[in-house]
């Protein structure tokens, strides 16, 4: 009975956490408009802060009230990546070095996205983030947040250090996820593969 209820919840689309995830995606054009058209750094940071708050809130609600859904597992990381891409795209004009993590992000998500799509088609399961993905997500937001706060005043050496650490974890996460996802593709070729799934995903618990 309990298992049947969990499956029913996992198939839902309209839940509070999912609505917050969609809201985060809808806030991306607002951020770009504030940053590129209005060139209002305060408003841009405010939009990002509110977006981050909804990110934390949807994860808390999903865990606290056990309303994790397949839609949320899929859309949460997409919302993360779209937000990260938008922030980096804005920063490239001020800090060309940001092109490096931006390029890695695009290549990583395209490659891993293809692998995970194959896994989903074969298994019907969506696998959640691992520790390195969570650390990478935090570092991207932390690094890009610092660059936004000190948009014209950040010292070059601090920019290189923070971007360098972020790039290291991006590459580490890419390698580890590639190994895991390749194993999943091979094992699900002939049937279910008993891979341990993690608990309910909030933004901090998604692939990055």
The name of the CATH architecture is Up-down Bundle
Determine the strand fraction and express it as a percent band: under 5%
Which structural class best describes the helix and strand composition? Answer: mainly alpha
Number of strands: 0
Give the ordered list of helices and strands.
Answer: HHHHHHH
Number of domains as seen in the coordinates: 1
Question: What are the segments in which pLDDT stays under 50 over at least 5 consecutive residues?
Answer: 193-208
Protein architecture, described:
Helix 6 runs antiparallel to helix 7. The longest helix is centred in the C-terminal third of the chain and has 32 residues, at 156-187. This protein has one domain (2-205): Four Helix Bundle (Hemerythrin (Met), subunit A) (Up-down Bundle). The protein has helices at residues 2-10, 16-37, 41-64, 70-91, 99-123, 131-149, 156-187. By secondary structure, the protein is mainly α. The protein is globular.
Summarize the structure.
The chain has 208 residues and is mainly α.
